[in-house]
């Protein structure tokens, strides 16, 4: 599983490479993720960061006081989430942009208490609440609607 792969948006205007980390895929159920992409965000980390190979349509939305969301301005694909204080390239990559066989299994669910009631996952990976994920740090302040946490 530790081989470099190429990821891309739906139209191909944004492309990147990286090596998915073996720890697995984290699933975020927060309302912000779900508003952006219709479902939970399947987050994959790269062991040595994300290397953008084509970026003319990549835009970063300043989503909250702690995070930015990268997307394609041509096709609208959800691509990345990054913390404002993270190391360059240490972004969460949307699993849908990667080849399916390169995406590791789900290892955790985060913001699980923010999950919508109309779906459930059947896997046994740990469910962590927003409070557990924040671990004492303040809640993110969305720059969009305040009900979009
Ligand atoms: Zn695109
Ligand atoms: Zn989220």
What does this structure look like?
This protein has two helices and ten strands, in the order E-E-E-H-E-E-E-E-E-E-E-H. It has helices at residues 31-37, 130-134; strands at 5-8, 15-18, 25-28, 41-44, 51-54, 58-62, 67-72, 78-83, 92-94, 106-110. The mean pLDDT is 94. The protein is globular. Strand 6 (58-62) and strand 7 (67-72) form a beta hairpin. The strands form two sheets. Strands 6-7-8-9-4-3-10 form a seven-stranded mixed beta sheet. A three-stranded antiparallel beta sheet has the order 1-2-5, with no helix packed on it. It is 8% helix and 30% strand. The termini are far apart. The chain has a single domain (5-134), classed as Metal Binding Protein, Guanine Nucleotide Exchange Factor, Chain A. The protein binds zinc ion (2 copies). Residues 9-11, 13-14, 57, 72, 74-75, 77 line the site of one zinc ion (ZN).
Task: Pick out its properties.
149 residues; mainly beta; Metal Binding Protein, Guanine Nucleotide Exchange Factor, Chain A; seven-stranded mixed sheet; three-stranded antiparallel sheet; 2 helices; 30% strand; binds zinc ion
């Amino acid at each position: 599983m530790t081989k470099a792969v190429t990821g891309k948006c739906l139209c191909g205007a944004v492309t990147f490479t990286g090596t998915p980390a073996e720890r697995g895929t984290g699933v975020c159920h927060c309302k912000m993720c779900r508003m952006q992409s219709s479902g939970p965000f399947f987050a994959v980390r790269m062991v040595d960061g994300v290397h953008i190979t084509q970026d003319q349509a990549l835009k970063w939305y300043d989503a909250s006081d702690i995070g930015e969301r990268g997307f394609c301005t041509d096709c609208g694909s959800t691509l990345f989430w990054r913390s404002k204080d993270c190391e360059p390239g240490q972004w969460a990559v949307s699993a849908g942009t990667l080849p399916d066989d390169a995406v590791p299994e789900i290892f955790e669910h985060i913001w699980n208490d923010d999950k919508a009631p109309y779906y459930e996952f059947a896997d046994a990976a740990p469910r962590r609440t927003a409070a557990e994920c924040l671990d004492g740090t303040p809640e993110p302040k969305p720059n969009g609607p305040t009900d979009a946490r």
